Amino acid sequence: MSDARRPRVLALDLESTLISNAVSQFARPGLASFLTWALAAFERVVLFTSVPEERATAILQLLISEGEAPPEAARIAYVQWSGRQKDLGFVRAAEVDEILLVDDQERYIVPEQRSQWVAIAEWDVPYAATDRELDRVRAVLEERLSGT
Question: Looking at domain 9-146, what is its CATH homologous superfamily?
Answer without folding.
Answer: HAD superfamily/HAD-like (3.40.50.1000)
